[in-house]
């Protein structure tokens, strides 16, 4: 059924199709069909970060930036859902077109630019939803906020979403906000993470519950750079790392239509680069939870991501190309794989 729907959706430009697909999922959710689309909910509980995940397969941030479709997406059988990236103030993002499909490579290029309705809207949508699963909220900075003042934006979002999130992800790795990736290194990273850890701990004490902090990093780093990031994560008591965001490399899509578009490349071409980062992180951070994301388009790919060192996985581009049934396929494959270890 999804193959037919995709053939229609792919006649539209990528961003229009994205919106139409989400509206279709909303309708399926209201009709009680969403869980069937996902292949049935797979129970394979795992405990990480002080949380209980019903299974190891999550939805990556970016698909539902404003939590407008949380109920429908949450009914598809995901073990957890991450919404955002959200910024303190609404922003429209970059001019359209800003999302491009590369079907021959199973890939997507986007330069959305953190388009979102602002943190107040996202919080209101979370409050209005009926989703009762594990919820991650991904936070970022506004385009007009200087990198030197980025911590202010992240702390604003942290305070707003703390009460509503099971975990919070700090996005410092999108290539579509100028200067953002500079926050991944050295003093910039330590300063930001130190401020967030301090404020997060204060919020935890006031709330009487601990909300873990995760950091999402880029795949475009060498082993030395990964090591520096790992040291900062560890020294600032960060609870988990998400590896990885999109890549700026175009080597895997050279010569393809849209292959030279600016933005972050996701999907199959980032599968192995993200695995390289995961393996290095696992070597340096043997006890830190790792959420693996990048190019998962089958149950076997999900298993390979876990074999590289991830504890949980997230879907994005594979979900767009293969539809909701991929959720159940990956969850079943990981349940079988992890039971056999």
Please provide a written account of the structure:
Strand 3, helix 4 and strand 4 form a beta-alpha-beta unit. The strands form 3 sheets. Strands 3-4-7-8-9-10-12-13 form an 8-stranded parallel barrel, surrounded by 4 helices. Strands 5-6-11 form a 3-stranded antiparallel beta sheet, with no helix packed on it. Strands 1-2 form a two-stranded antiparallel sheet. The longest helix is centred in the middle third of the chain and has 22 residues, at 186-207. The model has no long low-confidence stretch (mean pLDDT 94). The protein is an alpha/beta fold and 341 residues long. The protein contains 12 helices and 13 strands.
């Amino acid at each position: 059924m999804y193959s037919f729907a995709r053939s229609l959706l792919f006649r539209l430009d990528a961003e229009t199709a994205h919106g139409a697909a989400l509206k279709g999922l909303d309708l399926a959710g209201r009709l009680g069909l969403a869980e069937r689309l996902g292949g049935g909910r797979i129970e394979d509980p795992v405990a990480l970060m002080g949380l209980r995940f019903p299974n190891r397969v999550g939805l990556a941030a970016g698909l539902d930036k404003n939590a407008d479709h949380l109920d429908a997406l949450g009914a598809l059988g995901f073990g957890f859902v991450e919404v955002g990236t959200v910024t303190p103030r609404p922003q429209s993002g970059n001019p359209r077109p800003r999302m491009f499909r590369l079907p021959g490579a199973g890939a997507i290029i986007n330069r959305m630019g953190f388009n979102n309705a602002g943190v107040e809207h996202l919080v209101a949508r979370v409050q209005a939803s009926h989703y009762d699963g594990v919820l991650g909220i991904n936070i970022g900075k506004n385009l007009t906020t200087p990198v030197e003042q980025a911590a202010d934006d992240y702390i604003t979002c942290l305070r707003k979403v703390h009460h509503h999130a099971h975990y919070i992800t700090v996005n410092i790795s999108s290539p579509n906000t100028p200067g953002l990736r500079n926050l991944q290194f050295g003093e910039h990273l330590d300063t930001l993470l130190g401020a967030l850890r301090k404020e997060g701990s204060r919020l935890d004490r006031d709330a009487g519950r601990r909300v873990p902090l995760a950091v999402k990093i880029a795949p475009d780093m060498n082993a030395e750079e990964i090591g520096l990031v790992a040291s900062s994560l560890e020294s600032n008591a960060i609870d988990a790392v998400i590896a990885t965001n999109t890549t700026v490399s175009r080597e895997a899509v050279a010569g393809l239509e849209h292959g030279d578009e600016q933005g972050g490349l996701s999907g199959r071409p980032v599968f192995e680069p993200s695995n390289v980062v995961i393996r290095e992180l696992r070597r340096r951070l043997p006890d830190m939870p790792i959420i693996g994301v990048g190019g998962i388009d089958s149950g076997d790919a999900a298993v390979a991501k876990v074999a590289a060192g991830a504890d949980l996985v997230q879907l994005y581009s594979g979900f767009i190309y293969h539809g909701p049934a991929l959720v159940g396929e990956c969850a079943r494959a990981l349940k079988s794989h992890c039971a056999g270890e």
